[in-house]
Amino acid sequence: MNLNELTITEAKKKLADKEISAVDLVGACIASIDKHDADVHAFLEVFNDEAFAQARVIDKQRTAGEELGDLAGIPLALKDNILMRGKKATAGSQILEQHIAAYDSTVAARLKNAGAILLGRANCDEFAMGSSTEGSHFGPTANPWDLSRVPGGSSGGPVAAVAGGMALGGFGTDTGGSVRQPAALCGVVGMKPTYSRVSRYGIIALSSSFDQVGPIGRSVDDVATLLRIVEGKDSLDATSTHLDETTIAELLHLEEIKGLRVGIPKEYFIDGMDPEVEARVREAIKLLSTHGAEIIEVSLPHTNVALETYYVIQPAEAAANLERYDGMRYGLRATAPTLEQSYRMTRGEGFGAEVKRRVMLGTFVLSAGYVDAYYKKAQAVRTLIRRDFDEVFKDVDVILTPTSPTAAWPLGEKFDDPIAMYLADIFTVSANLAGLPGISVPCGFAHGLPVGFQLIGKAFDEATLFKVGHFYQSITEWHKKSPWDV
Amino acid sequence: MAQNLVNIDHLANLARLDFSDEEKATIAPQLWSILEYVGKLSQVDTTNVSNRTYVTDAVNVWREDIIESCDPEIVARCLEAFPKKVGTALSVPGIFEERTL
Question: Which CATH number fits domain A3-260+395-485: 3.40.50.150, 3.40.50.2000, 3.40.250.10, 3.90.1300.10?
Answer without folding.
Answer: 3.90.1300.10
